[in-house]
Design a protein that fits this description.
The chain has about 625 residues and is α+β, with helices and mostly antiparallel strands. It is built from 25 helices and 17 strands. About 40% of the residues lie in helices and about 15% in strands. The strands form three sheets. A six-stranded antiparallel beta sheet has the order 2-3-1-9-8-10, with helices on one face. The protein has a six-stranded antiparallel beta sheet with strand order 4-5-6-7-11-12, with helices on one face. It has a five-stranded parallel beta sheet with strand order 15-14-13-16-17.
C-alpha cells in the first residue's frame, strides 16, 4: 500500500525537485518504508511514490519502477491478488522478473497489453503507467474504487495523486470550494466521485481510466469507464446457473470466500483481522483462522452498551481461537484523535465511524502491518436496516397515489422535523419510485442543509448523488430490492465506507484489505437472486448459512449494530464544549453557513424532539475542516 503522485505538463515544467519531494512527503504515512521521485520526457513527466512494504520487502520492488530499457515506468498503490497466476502466464510468454512483487507483474502486464491489461487484474489498485515510446500516460482505478485517485487539470498541467495534499501545493491551485460538493458532504457525509471538495480537482471514478497523449495533441482527456457493475449482473454469465439450488449457491459462495481470504492473507508482513462480532467480520476472521492457523483480531468497545459490540467480538474470537485485542474508546480519546483524523482525510468527511476506525487502525498497527475487514457484505447481501425497512414497506408504498405523496412532502417540508414528521417524509414524500431509495436515505438531510444555508433542498436531485448510482437502470428491470444494493455499491460504499477505511488505516501506515469485495465474490453476488439474501424478513441469508459452518448461530444471530460513536449522548454530554465551540455563531458565519438554522437543529436535538446526530456531526466536520483550510 502506498501513495502515488504523477504529473504531465505538455509544455514542460512538470513539478520536480524540492516541490515534488515535498508532495511525496505529504503522503509519507501511506508509505513510511521508502520512496522516490523521477522526472522523464525532458521535464514533461514527473512521478513520485512513497511505499508501505508488504510484498517483497527488498529494494527490487521499489518505485517508481522502470521496465527494461526504462521505456516503461509505473507508480502503483494497492495489491494485485491474482499476481501469481499472471506471473506464471508472463513467464510462460518469456518474461523474466527481478523481484517477487505484484508491482512488477502489473508493470509487465501493462507493457504487453496497455489498457487491455485492466480486464485481467483482480485486486485493489490505483496506478499511473508511462510508456515513453508510445507517448502515453495511463492512470486507472480498480473496479469498486477501493483505492483513491485524484485528478487535477489546469494551467497546462495534469496531475494525479492518492490524496489531495500534494495537489494543493501546485502554484495554480486556488482552493476554491465546489458549492455542490459542500452540499453533498453535508447531506451524505462525503463528497462523491467524480467531485472533490475543490473546483479544480476531481476523482477518477471507480472502474475508470484517464489516458493522456504525451505529445499534447487531442481533446482534453476525460475519465473513461473500463468496467461497470452492469457487466457482471447478467445471470446467464454467473459462475452458478440461475436455476441452481440454494445448496449449490451456498457452496459456491463458501468456496469464493475461502479463496478470497486465502489470497488476501498473502503478505511478507504480519496480517490481522478487524473483528466486530457481526456476520461479515466474523466470517472473514473464522476463515482466516482456519487457513492461517493463528491470527490476531482487533475490536473497539464503548462504555455505552447500546453501541458496544466488543462482547460479541470477544465471544467469536474465543470460539475461533484467535489472539484477541480490545480497545475501549472514550470521549477524551475521540477529541485527541480528531486533529490526526482531519489530516488523514484532507477533505471534509462526516462519517462518525471514521473515528473508531482510525483508533482501531492505530491500535492494530502496534502488532500487524495488514488487516482484513468485513466491509462490503452489507452492500452485496442486503445487510442494512434501511434495506429491510423499505423491502417490507414497498408493497404498501406502491399503493400511495402521487397527490398523497405531494401532500406529505408539503406537510413535512419544515426542518428540523419531529420524529413523526421525519418518518412520514422518509416513507411517503418521495417524488417517484425511481428516486424512493435516495429520498428515503438523504432527503431529510437535504432539508437540514437548506435550513443551514448550504443550498436549496432540490440540489439533492441536481448533485448526482442519485444519478451516479445505478438504481435507475435496475428499476427499469423492475427489481427495486436489487436496485438498493447496486445504489450502495456504486455510491455509499465507495465514497463513504471504502474512503473511511483507506484514509484511517493509511494514516496509521496500515494496509486494509476487503476480502468480501474480491472479484471472486463479486462475480457471484451481483447476479445472485435477491431471494438468496433477503429471506424471512432478514438479510444475508446465504452468508449466514456459510458462517454457520464455522461459528454457532447463537454468536451472531442478533439485531444489527452500527459501527459508530454514541453521538446521541456525547454531542451535548461529554463533547458539549467541543460541539458548541465548533458550531459557534462566528465559526458558522466564517464557513458561509446560517447560524440561526443550525441553532434550530441543535435546539431540537437537545430537547429530544429529534435525533440530529447524523447531520450535526458532518456539520461539525465541515466547519472544522473549513476553518483549518482558511488558516493554512
Amino acid at each position: 500500500m502506498c501513495g502515488i503522485v504523477a504529473f504531465f505538463a505538455p509544455g514542460g515544467g512538470a513539478p520536480h525537485g524540492p516541490l515534488l519531494e515535498a508532495m511525496n512527503r505529504d503522503q509519507a504515512l501511506r508509505g513510511p518504508d521508502g520512496g522516490g521521485t523521477q522526472v522523464l520526457a525532458q521535464g514533461r513527466v514527473s512521478l513520485a511514490h512513497t511505499r508501505l512494504a508488504v510484498l517483497d520487502l527488498s529494494e527490487a520492488a521499489g518505485q517508481p519502477m522502470a521496465g527494461p530499457g526504462q521505456r516503461h515506468w509505473l507508480v502503483f498503490n494497492g495489491e494485485i491478488y491474482n499476481h501469481r497466476e499472471l506471473r506464471r502466464e508472463l513467464e510462460g510468454a518469456g518474461e523474466t522478473f527481478v523481484s517477487t512483487s505484484d508491482t512488477e507483474v502489473l508493470l509487465r502486464m501493462l507493457m504487453r497489453h496497455g489498457a487491455g491489461a485492466l480486464d485481467r487484474l483482480e485486486g485493489m489498485f490505483a496506478f499511473v503507467h508511462v510508456d515513453l515510446e508510445r507517448g502515453v500516460m495511463l492512470a486507472a482505478r480498480d473496479r469498486l474504487g477501493i483505492k483513491p485517485l485524484y485528478f487535477y487539470q489546469g494551467g497546462g498541467l495534469f496531475g494525479f495523486s492518492s490524496t489531495l495534499a500534494p495537489l494543493r501545493r501546485l502554484p495554480g491551485f486556488t482552493g476554491a470550494i465546489d458549492p455542490m460538493a459542500r452540499f453533498e458532504m453535508l447531506v451524505s457525509k462525503y463528497v462523491a466521485a467524480p467531485r472533490s471538495i475543490y473546483q479544480q480537482i476531481g476523482k477518477v471514478p471507480p472502474g475508470s481510466f484517464v489516458r493522456l497523449n504525451l505529445d499534447g495533441q487531442g481533446p482534453v482527456p476525460e475519465p473513461q469507464a473500463w468496467w461497470t457493475i452492469g457487466q457482471w449482473l447478467d445471470p446467464q454469465a454467473a459462475p452458478v446457473a440461475p436455476d441452481a439450488s440454494e445448496d449449490v449457491w451456498e457452496e459456491a459462495l463458501a468456496q469464493a470466500v475461502e479463496r478470497s481470504v486465502s489470497r488476501q492473507l498473502v503478505a511478507d508482513v504480519p496480517v490481522g483481522v478487524l473483528l466486530s462480532g457481526g456476520i461479515d467480520s466474523s466470517l472473514v476472521a473464522a476463515t482466516a483462522m482456519r487457513l492461517a492457523g493463528g491470527v490476531d483480531t482487533f475490536c473497539v468497545g464503548y462504555a455505552e452498551g447500546a453501541y458496544d459490540e466488543s462482547r460479541h467480538a470477544r465471544a467469536v474470537a474465543a470460539h475461533i481461537g484467535s489472539r484477541h485485542h480490545e480497545l475501549l474508546v472514550s470521549p477524551q480519546q475521540v477529541l485527541q484523535a480528531l486533529t490526526s483524523i482531519a489530516e488523514a482525510y484532507d477533505e471534509p468527511f462526516g462519517d462518525a465511524s471514521a473515528v473508531p476506525t482510525y483508533l482501531l487502525s492505530r491500535f492494530a498497527r502496534e502488532r500487524v502491518t495488514v488487516v482484513l475487514s468485513g466491509d462490503g457484505g452489507d452492500e452485496q447481501f442486503f445487510g442494512y436496516t434501511r434495506h429491510h425497512l423499505l423491502a417490507r414497506a414497498l408493497p404498501w408504498l406502491r399503493l400511495v397515489p402521487g397527490p398523497a405523496r405531494r401532500l406529505a412532502a408539503t406537510l413535512t417540508s419544515r426542518a428540523p422535523r419531529g420524529r413523526l414528521a421525519h418518518a412520514l417524509s422518509a416513507f411517503f414524500a418521495f417524488p417517484d419510485e425511481s428516486r424512493l431509495y435516495t429520498h428515503h436515505v438523504l432527503d431529510n438531510f437535504a432539508a437540514q442543509a437548506e435550513l443551514c444555508g448550504a443550498g436549496p433542498r432540490a440540489m439533492l436531485w441536481d448533485s448526482g448523488l442519485h444519478t451516479r448510482s445505478v438504481e435507475g437502470a435496475s428499476l427499469a428491470r423492475g427489481d427495486f430490492l436489487k436496485a438498493m444494493l447496486l445504489a450502495d455499491l456504486g455510491g455509499y460504499m465507495v465514497d463513504d465506507c471504502l474512503t473511511k477505511v483507506d484514509r484511517a488505516s493509511m494514516a496509521c501506515s496500515l494496509e486494509a484489505r476487503v476480502p468480501l469485495l474480491d472479484e471472486l465474490i463479486l462475480r457471484l453476488s451481483l447476479p445472485m437472486p435477491v431471494g438468496l439474501s433477503w429471506r424471512g424478513g432478514m438479510g444475508k441469508h446465504l452468508l449466514r448459512r456459510v458462517l454457520a459452518r464455522s461459528v454457532p448461530r447463537a454468536l451472531f444471530e442478533r439485531p444489527k449494530m452500527g459501527f459508530g460513536l454514541p453521538l446521541d449522548g456525547w454531542l451535548f454530554g461529554p463533547l458539549r464544549d467541543f460541539t458548541e465551540e465548533v458550531l459557534s455563531r462566528n465559526n458558522l458565519l466564517v464557513a458561509g453557513l446560517d447560524p440561526d438554522g443550525v441553532q434550530r437543529i441543535m435546539a431540537a436535538h437537545k430537547a429530544g424532539r429529534a435525533d440530529h446526530q447524523y447531520f450535526l456531526w458532518p456539520l461539525i466536520c465541515y466547519v472544522r475542516w473549513y476553518l483549518a483550510q482558511a488558516a493554512s
